[in-house]
Amino acid sequence: MDTSDLTTQGAILTSLSIIAGGIIIGAMIFQISIPFAQYIMVVLAGLVVIGAIALILGSRESEKTPVQR
């Protein structure tokens, strides 16, 4: 697996999960009823953790391999 793909995928997963969580929190502030919002937030928090792990693993792998230019 290409490590740059792992880093990019981790960044995208983390970013989108944070954005989706912000949208849900914003909707809840304006009293918009979202079914299963608490469960969705827990899943999004788990996705942020998985994305952060992918970022860490991707950066560790890129440190081990020499830069090819």
Q: In a nutshell, what does this entry contain?
A:
With 69 residues, this protein is mainly α.
Topology (SSEs and partners):
Elements: H1 3-29, H2 37-64
Helix pairs in contact: 1-2
Question: How would you describe the overall organization of this protein?
Answer:
Keywords: Membrane, Transmembrane, Transmembrane helix. With 69 residues, the chain is mainly alpha-helical. It is 80% helix and 0% strand. Helix 1 runs antiparallel to helix 2. It starts with a helix and ends in a 5-residue tail after the last helix. The mean pLDDT is 88.
Please report which band the strand proportion falls in: under 5%, 5-15%, 15-25%, 25-35%, 35-45% or over 45%: under 5%
Shape assignment: elongated
Radius of gyration based on Cα positions: 16 Å
- Describe the sheet with the most strands: none
Structural class: mainly alpha
Which bin fits the share of residues in helices?
over 70%
How many H/I helices? 2
Q: What's the number of extended β-strand segments?
A: 0
What is the terminal separation in angstroms?
19 Å
Low-confidence stretches: none
Q: Mean of the pLDDT scores?
A: 88
Topology pattern, helix = H, strand = E: HH
Provide keyphrases for this structure.
single chain; 69 residues; mainly alpha; 80% helix; 0% strand; elongated
